[in-house]
């Protein structure tokens, strides 16, 4: 179920958390910080089952006539277009300092409806954090900072829309950003902030932490009642192939009748020859091992298909994070190209693009055109790459060539990337990256015939069901081993 944000982690739960990490027990996919209130499910499921899901019945007629900032709906249309900002940032194991301004990272040339923000290394990746209990303190600090930025009462200084800065961007005009709407014959005036505080309020839909990887999804308060089937899943790919110093955190949700999956990853580091193969393997394992468990209520109602269980089952998927792909070896002219700011020539050596073109990773995924400088590795609190600094003794860090480690990819129909840029905050050795998407969301239920076919398929026994039973047995064994402890708070596990 969803949890109230800000809950303190009980020290007595430390042995339980450590056991779960060491034995690689699956996470409780129904427990995560959220601003949504816990609601009882329908009578078709267990009387004691509860979740942070909203009612599934949607008043389509009301939405087709509603005029809210960010929403673009045509009369009698079965879909609407939303604006979604996606951001990723490796913060170098440091908690946010007091007064840190997220304006540069969260700003958008147009008001957004959804914010998907992923972090890497929100805690130092030392043995205590990797093997011990989760340190949720920095995550709470980041959430408070984000909430303050998104819900600022000062409309003129809101990070979501800066008319002056947007007008100075030569890359895209405001009309370009609304091109998708023009295709649908929808006309909209320039964005503005409504007077109602509730209309400009953003709520935390869900967040999830695994060691240093942290993902949070924020939605406009007036959209929350249309969000359902919130689930989280994490996959460790670090020490011994399953601890959480590397890996992924994923959030699955349904908005109206469209399913979304957001995958925040921190892949294997290193720039030695062959390290890109390890990163490819990380992607493959994350796709294979990420699972979202659901009750069987969807398979018994006969009305709609069951919620997606894997990443690729979703209608729309965003993959973000520190993917750690570097420049391939043999780029002798790298330093000269860096000094000339010739990013397109350098991108010809980008491992991710090379591996993707060869069909070895992210086949069928899309990424926008990169027109910004490499995001890694900087000297902290400076604009200088470590590799180009000659005023210090040679070190291992000096040999780390600049690279586009921080990326955002997507797959699914009805998505159009409007912006793909980087921020300039000097807080860590990485620069943050963010993107603006125009996303088409279905309001009406999908074809019933296709739905029934999906339901029929879903009711057949599968290997995944057997694996789920095995995982349940593991958890029961854990309960027996650790059940002697009392007063354990499992809310953040």
TrEMBL record:
Database matches in Pfam families: Exo_endo_phos2
MF annotations from Gene Ontology: inositol-polyphosphate 5-phosphatase activity; phosphatidylinositol-3,4,5-trisphosphate 5-phosphatase activity; phosphatidylinositol-4,5-bisphosphate 5-phosphatase activity
UniProt xrefs under PANTHER family: TYPE I INOSITOL POLYPHOSPHATE 5-PHOSPHATASE 8 (PTHR45666:SF15), TYPE IV INOSITOL POLYPHOSPHATE 5-PHOSPHATASE 9 (PTHR45666)
Name of the protein: Type I inositol polyphosphate 5-phosphatase 8 isoform X1
Keywords assigned by UniProt, alphabetized: Hydrolase
Inositol polyphosphate-related phosphatase domain residues: 80-445
GO biological process terms, semicolon-separated: phosphatidylinositol dephosphorylation
InterPro entries hit by this protein: Endo/exonu/phosph_ase_sf, IP5P_plant, IPPc
Family statement drawn from the similarity comment of this UniProt entry: Belongs to the inositol polyphosphate 5-phosphatase family.
Gene3D superfamilies in UniProt: Endonuclease/exonuclease/phosphatase (3.60.10.10)
């Amino acid at each position: 179920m969803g949890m109230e944000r800000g809950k303190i982690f009980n020290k007595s739960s430390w042995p339980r958390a450590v056991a779960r990490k060491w034995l690689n027990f699956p996470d409780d996919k129904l427990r995560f910080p959220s601003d949504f209130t816990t609601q009882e499910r329908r009578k078709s499921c267990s009387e004691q089952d509860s979740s942070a899901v909203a009612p599934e019945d949607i008043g389509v007629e009301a939405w087709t006539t509603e005029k809210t900032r960010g929403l673009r709906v045509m009369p009698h249309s079965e879909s609407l277009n939303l604006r979604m900002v996606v951001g990723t940032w490796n913060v170098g194991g440091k908690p946010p300092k007091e007064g840190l301004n997220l304006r540069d990272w969260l700003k958008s040339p147009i008001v957004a409806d959804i914010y998907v923000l992923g972090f890497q290394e929100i805690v130092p990746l030392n043995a205590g954090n990797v093997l011990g209990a989760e340190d949720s303190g920095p995550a709470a600090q980041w959430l408070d900072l984000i909430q303050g930025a998104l819900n600022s009462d000062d409309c003129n200084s809101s990070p979501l829309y800066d008319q002056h800065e947007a007008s100075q961007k030569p890359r895209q005009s405001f009309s370009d950003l609304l091109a998708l709407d023009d295709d649908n014959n929808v006309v909209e005036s320039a964005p503005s902030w409504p007077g109602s505080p509730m209309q400009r309020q953003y709520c935390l839909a869900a967040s999830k932490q695994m060691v240093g990887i942290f993902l949070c999804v924020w939605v406009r308060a007036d959209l929350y009642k249309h969000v359902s089937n919130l689930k989280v899943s994490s996959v460790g790919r670090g020490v011994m192939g399953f601890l959480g110093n590397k890996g992924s955190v994923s959030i699955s949700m349904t908005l109206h009748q469209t399913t979304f999956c957001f995958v925040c990853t921190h892949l294997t580091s290193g720039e030695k020859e062959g390290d890109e193969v390890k990163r490819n393997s990380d992607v493959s394992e994350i796709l294979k091992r990420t699972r979202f468990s659901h009750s069987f209520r969807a398979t018994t109602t006969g009305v709609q298909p069951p919620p997606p269980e894997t990443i690729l089952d979703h209608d729309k998927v965003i993959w973000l994070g520190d993917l750690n792909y570097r420049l391939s070896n043999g780029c002798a002219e790298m330093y000269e190209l860096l000094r000339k700011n010739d990013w397109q020539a350098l991108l010809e050596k980008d491992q991710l693009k090379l591996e993707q073109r060869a069909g070895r990773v992210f086949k069928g995924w899309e990424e926008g055109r990169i027109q910004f400088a490499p995001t890694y590795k900087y000297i902290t609190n400076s604009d200088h790459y470590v590799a180009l600094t000659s005023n210090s003794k040679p070190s291992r860090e000096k040999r780390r060539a600049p690279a586009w480690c921080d990326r955002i990819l997507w797959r699914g129909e009805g998505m159009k990337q409007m912006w793909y840029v980087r921020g300039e905050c000097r807080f860590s050795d990485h620069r943050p990256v963010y993107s603006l998407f125009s996303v088409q969301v279905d309001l009406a239920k999908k074809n019933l015939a296709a739905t029934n076919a999906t339901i029929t398929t879903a009711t057949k026994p599968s290997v995944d069901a057997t694996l789920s039973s095995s995982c349940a047995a593991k958890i029961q064994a854990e309960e027996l081993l650790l059940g002697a402890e009392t007063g354990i708070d499992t809310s953040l596990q």
